[in-house]
Design brief:
With about 300 residues, the chain is an alpha/beta fold. It folds into 2 domains: about 120 residues, Rossmann fold (3-Layer(aba) Sandwich); about 130 residues, Response regulator (Rossmann fold, 3-Layer(aba) Sandwich). It is about 35% helix and about 20% strand. It has 9 helices and 13 strands. The strands form 3 sheets. The chain has a 6-stranded mixed β-sheet, with helices on both faces. α3 crosses α4 and α5 packs parallel to α6.
């Protein structure tokens, strides 16, 4: 069980710790809000799957893997002392650095070995190229599947985590000579009623023949909603979802998706953290891995 410090009890996790003494530790830092919103709400995907991939990696064999919950009321000095208490062979991972800029600043200033997963303009970053994958997905829908009326399904009213995907969508439409139509960007609070009203009104008007879901949360819901009505996948509506789920490869029809290489990202994070632990702090790590477009029956 991965230890969760900073809250009562422990977070259940589908791995077991290896026996034996360890001197290294990899510590995932969350505040209470991001832990609930980005870890628990998406379990067992994304953040949880990345942590699981790190834990199961052979480089982490002699390593503690901890989830540390940060109290936002803590002072800078208290946080620095907390991070120091893990010893000189500790590395830190920020999966959502945009929500904890003060923590990121402390890690950089005090030169603790760290890696950010989500995009940051400066400092250490290991992540994936959602822009390129989205371009590839939209191009496939246009050039291979012959679709010209492609909706962009966003999981929220803002684009905090999907801005690169929206840009890839817009840029590819323009590159392929198709207009960007604001009315085909779905940002409403998701309900089946809202989504099906959006789909059916545009489909009946001849304005919709494909959807690109910018996250697995809205993609899963959209696929299930489409199956519940009279629209056929892919004959009426082609579908690609950003982020693969096990159910997508077994559903009828199977669902095309963008696969984020979490195992490769986990290996890169461990490699760079251990390099810093063994050879000294760096603040210039920039590794971006390519996502993979997996074509199945839905497009």
């Amino acid at each position: 069980m991965v230890r969760c410090a900073g809250s009562p009890g422990k977070v259940l996790f589908p791995v077991k710790q290896n026996p034996g003494d360890r001197t290294n530790s990899i510590n995932f830092l969350f505040d209470y809000n991001t832990f609930n919103n980005q870890f628990l709400d998406t379990y067992p995907c994304v953040n949880a799957k990345l942590i699981d991939s790190i834990f199961k990696n052979t480089m982490a064999k002699e390593c503690d893997v901890n989830i540390i919950l940060i109290n936002p009321a803590s002072s800078d000095a208290d946080l620095a002392a907390k991070f120091s208490s893990f010893g000189s062979r500790a590395g830190f991972v920020l999966l959502n650095p945009d929500t904890m800029p003060r923590v990121l600043a402390i890690l950089r200033r005090e030169q603790f070995p760290y890696i950010s997963f989500a995009a940051v303009s400066e400092g250490n970053l290991i992540s994936h190229d959602g822009y390129f994958a989205t371009c590839h997905a939209i191009e496939h829908l246009i050039r291979i599947s012959g679709r010209e009326n492609i909706a962009f399904l966003n999981p929220a009213a803002d684009f905090a985590y999907t801005g690169d995907r929206l840009k890839g969508y817009r840029d590819t439409l323009r590159k392929q000579g198709l207009p960007f139509r604001e009315e085909l960007v779905f940002t409403q609070p998701y309900t089946n009623e809202n989504f099906l009203s959006f789909v059916q009104s545009n489909f009946q008007a001849g304005k919709l023949d494909a959807v690109f879901a910018a996250s697995f949360e809205i993609g899963r819901k959209a696929v299930n909603a489409l199956k519940s009505c009279d629209l056929r996948i892919p004959e009426d509506i082609a579908v690609i979802v950003f982020f693969d789920l096990p159910e997508f490869s077994t559903s009828v029809p199977t669902i095309s998706c963008v696969n984020v290489p979490l195992e490769s990202i986990a290996s890169a994070i461990l490699k760079k953290l251990f390099e810093m632990i063994n050879f000294g702090f760096r603040d210039d790590v920039r590794v971006i891995l390519k996502d993979e477009l997996i074509i199945r029956e839905s497009c």
